[in-house]
Amino acid sequence: MSNQSNTIRLGNLLDDMWRVHAYFHKWQRQRYKDGMPYANYNAMSAHLTELKRTTHPHWNALPSQAIQCELKRIDAAYQRFFDNLGGRPHIKARHKFKSMTFPGASGWKLKDNRISINVKQYNETKHKWQNDFLPYTFHKHREIEGKIRRITLKRDNCGDYWLCITTNHTDTESLPTTGQSVGADNVIQGMNLIYPQIKFGMKDAYLTLSTGEKIQHPQPLKQSLTKLRSLNKNLSRKVKGSNGWWRAVLVLAKHYRHVANQRKDFHWKLATYLCERFDIIVLETLNLEGMKRRPWGRKVSDLAFYQFVEILKYKCLKHNRELHQVGQWTATTKPCSDCGENNENLSLSDREWRCPDCGSHHDRDINAAINILRVGLAT
Ligand SMILES: [Zn+2]
Question: What is the distance in A from the centroid of ligand 1 to the CA of 341?
């Protein structure tokens, strides 16, 4: 979305929202230090009213629905922390505070590709805060169906603003059943766990299906990843903080976004493809713990696989498909998928092998995918 002069105000608005965010986190911490009980959403809300009246009158200008939403976010983070579901809530760095949400249907007006955000302005002559609307035009990607549940305004790393409009519309048309099942082996994911010292490149198939099909990364994504490497190199040659360095940072950020979009597009298409062909899909689970210790590049590929699984979960739910996940420590590589005999002599370099027991010839990944399918169907 864009609007020359208002874009600046939008940035200021987010920065001001960040100040609210930081203030209330610090306030909770101070209360804790002083031995006071935790202040829940209602208590924070009451404190906010007090602040607006006394020390922080300028907060009256901010969209109140978005502030309420932020306080609810903080409250939820603390509740998760108290229930041992999450770590201690932390204050986001200013540049990492990137979004604000308007729940429900108030705080904004929407017409065609124009949105007005409700803020307040102080009227000097009347001595009171009055409604003001910040109008923006945006590029609409698709028609909005259903009733709007919430609107989120986001700023990305490239400094562009996005509106995410969530509606109650559900697409109920699901794909016809096929009676087919499939197991899929993700080479990068599985191998990294067992052989962290070996690098897996883009040459390997992204997914190997038990049907024998190998799904590769799309060519444009491969090219983009190569370009990403050269842009990174370019950045490292610049003097940190110089004009040239900042320019390179922006070019890199834009390219990252491009790669992320290409990858997401690939994931959606692949998830749709799998749902079109199979009723039951079996994958290996991810080791999220192990992922934290991974070197950067591989972490990205695993995070990407995680994103793929999330998309696939969504698609499976929508189309009534079953998605099974097989534990990562289940032996799926060494057993022969024909006779079940473990091939203990199998080494990583063996991309193909012959079963010493029954003589079947196997492709390493296809064999693993078949085993994954079998374990998935048995559980
Ligand atoms: Zn065999």
Answer: 5
